[in-house]
Amino acid sequence: MAPLLSSVCVYCGSSNNGPQSHRDAATELGTLMASRGIDLVYGGGRVGVMGTVADAVMSAGGKVTGIIPDFLMRKEVGHTNITSLEIVQNMHHRKARMAELSDAFLVLPGGLGTLEEFFEVLTWRFLGLHDKPIALLNTDRYWQKLSDALQTMAETGYAHQQALDFAPLVNTPEEALDLLAERASASKQFDTDNTEP
Question: Given the DSSP bridges, would you call strands 134-137 and 7-11 parallel, antiparallel or unpaired?
Fold first, then answer.
């Protein structure tokens, strides 16, 4: 894999209550990332979809960097069997560090925290604060209603269509990594373009 996509930040749920198909997709993603030499950057947890994708990358011989706030580490949800676990002061530092270490962002099924991370990084992208690609892995059509809501925002004038185009839905882990790699390459090719988003 070209170095243009050497690391991907994965946002996803930390609950074990979701369907098995979500963890299966996370396992497939993690295995594929390792096979392509793509490092995982994530929230540092050992449970739920979050722990599943980290375990898959590690099991396949890949590299995993987790970023976790101190208060969550103290609750013993930090994953200590990964390549590197960074303990930071708070959630703001966590998100900033994850963004700093990543070449792209991929959103898997999750809850409120996952949505908060997604909307922040999408807003940053629209405002031109970064040029890294974003995608949502639409396992079991999990993000379809979110996509529909975003389209409604655009149709009623509360969001720009271009912002929505920054975060497409993808159906499989392979499609996700292919798209992120393609967009990362395009971004590097045109990184001197200073046009407003």
Answer: unpaired
Question: pLDDT over 90 for what percent of the chain?
Answer: 84
Note whether 142 and 22 are within 8 A (CB): yes
Mean pLDDT score, 146-156? 94
* DSSP type of residue 38: P
Cross-strand bridge partners of residue 105: 9, 134
Q: Beta partners for 191?
A: none
Q: How far apart are CA 77 and CA 16, in angstroms?
A: 12
Distance separating alpha carbons of residues 36 and 16, to the nearest angstrom: 27
Complete edge-to-edge strand list for the sheet that includes strand 104-107: 84-88, 64-69, 39-42, 7-11, 104-107, 134-137, 169-170
Strand pairing category for 169-170 and 134-137: parallel
β pairing state of 84-88 and 64-69: parallel
Measured distance CA(36)–CA(29) in Å, rounded? 11
Residue 47 DSSP SS3? coil
**Angle at which helices 112-126 and 91-101 pack, to 10 degrees?**
60
* pLDDT band of 185, cuts 50, 70, 90: confident
